[in-house]
């Protein structure tokens, strides 16, 4: 099963603003802390500020779980369903 090309959102580049002067900042490096947490090394692009700082990028929670997860849940749910229930469901499709 392929899920390629099923995005339903507009892709926008991530923007980091300087926490000191709110100017646009550039990400110069990243450091992976775990599968769900990364550190971003940033440089403020405002020459009068020129701050260097780290920001964290962390997964908070899923808005929609991965399709593989929901597919597997449905397959497992269907597999455990009594035969009569399966037949009743299939008759509706
Ligand atoms: Zn700044």
From TrEMBL:
Top-rank taxon, per record: Bacteria
Domain Zinc finger Ogr/Delta-type positions: 17-57
Pfam families recorded: Ogr_Delta
Record-given protein name: Zinc finger Ogr/Delta-type domain-containing protein
Lineage of the species this protein comes from: Bacteria, Pseudomonadati, Pseudomonadota, Gammaproteobacteria, Oceanospirillales
């Amino acid at each position: 099963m392929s899920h390629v090309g099923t995005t339903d959102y507009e892709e926008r580049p991530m923007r980091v603003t300087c926490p000191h002067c709110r100017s646009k900042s550039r990400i110069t490096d990243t450091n992976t802390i775990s599968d769900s947490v990364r550190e971003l090394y940033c440089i403020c692009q405002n020459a009068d500020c020129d701050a260097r700082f780290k920001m964290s990028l962390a997964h908070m929670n899923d808005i929609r779980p991965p399709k593989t997860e929901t597919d597997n849940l449905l397959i497992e749910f269907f597999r455990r369903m009594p035969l009569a229930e399966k037949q009743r469901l299939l008759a509706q499709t």
